[in-house]
Design goal:
By secondary structure, the protein is α+β, with helices and mostly antiparallel strands. The protein contains twelve helices and ten strands. It has two domains: 48 residues, no CATH class; 256 residues, 2-Layer Sandwich (Creatine Kinase, Chain A, domain 2). The longest helix is centred in the C-terminal third of the chain and has 21 residues.
C-alpha cells in the first residue's frame, strides 16, 4: 500500500488499486509514479497528477520569461461565470446553493460585483435567470463552480437555445501589446473557436465574431501602456455583443468570453474557463498562431490535460455533427 495516503485517496475494490484525486484538476488516477510524481521510492507522492505538474512547470517557465511573479501564476487568473438557465425557481436555487455551502442571494437585474453568488433576472432568457459568480480563482474557484453546477442540477435547472454562458477573465496584467495579440489571435482563430461551440453560437446576435475594426481599435493602444488607468480610454468604445468582449475592461478589468452556448455541466463550463485562461496566457507571452481547426487550437494552447480532453471531445462532437448534416463546422 503506498504511503502518504490522504482523504482524497480511496481503495478501488474491483482492482485492489489505490486511487488518488488530483487536487488541481479533480480527476482520479491510480496512485503510481505513472500518474503522480515522487522523487524516489521512499518519498511521498505529490497531490497533483503528472499532467497538472507538467502544466505547472510550463506556466512557471513562461512566467519567468515574461518577468511575472511565479506566485501570481500559481494562484491562477481570476475569473467569473454567468450561467443563464430556465426551468427552476430562483429562490429554490438560492436555497440549494446555501445548502452546498455557497453564499448566495436572489437580486434584481444589476451589474454589481459581489463577494457572493447572485441569481438575477435576464431579459434575453424568457422566464429564466442568470446565476452570477463572485470573482473566483484557482482550485477554490473551480470547487465553488462544481458546487454551483450541482446545485443547479438539484433544482432541475436546464438550458435552451436562448441561454448562453459568459466568462469574465481578469486581464489587468496585460499591456497594450498583449491586448493586441489577444484580440488579433482570437479573430484569426475564430473558425477554430467556432468548432468548440454549438452552431447556434457561431455568428450569433449575442456573440458575433470580432471585426477587423474591433481589432484595429485595440491595436491603437500604445504597446507599453499597462493596467486599467493606462488603457481605459483606448477601450472606451463598446460593442458588447462580441464573442470576445472588451467593454467590461474599463469597469472591472476583465474581458468577457461570450460565445459558449448555455450549459449547467461542470465539466463543460470548467473546460471553457480553462480554454479562455489558456488563450490569454498564450497571448500574454507571444503571438497566438492560427490553428487549422478546434482540436489543433486546443493542442497549441497551455490547457490542462483534463480540460483539454473535454474540449477535444466537444470539437469531435461538433465536427461529426457537421459531417452528418452537411453544415460547415
Amino acid at each position: 500500500m503506498p504511503a502518504n495516503l490522504t482523504a482524497a485517496d480511496r481503495l478501488d475494490l474491483a482492482s485492489g488499486a489505490t486511487l488518488r484525486t488530483c487536487r488541481n484538476c479533480g480527476n482520479e488516477y491510480p496512485l503510481t509514479p505513472e500518474f503522480f510524481y515522487r522523487r524516489n521510492a521512499e518519498s511521498p507522492f505529490e497531490a497533483r497528477c503528472q499532467s497538472c505538474r507538467r502544466q505547472r512547470n510550463r506556466e512557471v517557465a513562461a512566467a519567468r520569461r515574461a518577468g511575472t511573479p511565479v506566485r501570481a501564476t500559481r494562484l491562477g487568473r481570476k475569473f467569473g461565470v454567468e450561467i443563464e438557465f430556465i426551468g427552476a425557481s430562483n429562490y429554490a436555487l438560492e436555497r440549494a446553493l446555501r445548502a452546498a455551502g455557497l453564499d448566495a442571494n436572489v437580486e434584481g437585474y444589476n451589474h454589481r460585483v459581489r463577494g457572493s453568488w447572485k441569481i438575477v433576472t435576464d431579459a434575453s432568457v424568457a422566464g429564466g435567470y442568470e446565476l452570477v459568480s463572485p470573482p473566483l480563482r484557482g482550485q477554490d474557484g473551480f470547487d465553488q463552480l462544481r458546487k454551483a453546477c450541482e446545485a443547479l442540477a438539484s433544482v432541475g435547472a436546464r438550458v435552451s437555445r436562448a441561454c448562453g454562458l459568459h466568462v469574465h477573465h481578469d486581464v489587468t496584467d496585460l499591456d497594450g501589446a498583449a491586448f493586441s495579440r489577444l484580440f488579433r489571435g482570437w479573430r484569426s482563430n475564430q473558425r477554430a473557436i467556432d468548432g468548440l461551440v454549438a452552431p447556434s453560437r457561431r455568428n450569433s446576435r449575442w456573440a458575433g465574431p470580432l471585426t477587423s475594426r474591433d481589432v484595429e481599435r485595440v491595436e491603437a493602444a500604445p504597446a507599453d501602456a499597462r493596467g486599467i488607468d493606462g488603457l481605459r480610454r483606448y477601450f472606451s468604445y463598446a460593442d458588447r455583443y462580441r464573442s470576445l468582449n472588451i467593454e467590461p475592461f474599463g469597469r472591472y478589468g476583465t474581458v468577457e468570453v461570450r460565445q459558449h452556448q448555455g450549459s449547467t455541466s461542470y465539466e463543460k463550463i470548467a473546460a471553457w474557463v480553462a480554454f479562455g485562461q489558456a488563450f490569454i496566457a498564450a497571448a500574454k507571452t507571444g503571438e497566438v498562431e492560427t490553428a487549422a481547426d478546434a482540436a489543433a487550437l486546443v493542442d497549441a494552447l497551455p490547457v490542462p490535460a483534463a480540460h483539454g480532453r473535454v474540449l477535444r471531445s466537444r470539437a469531435a462532437h461538433f465536427a461529426g455533427a457537421a459531417r452528418r448534416t452537411g453544415v460547415a463546422a
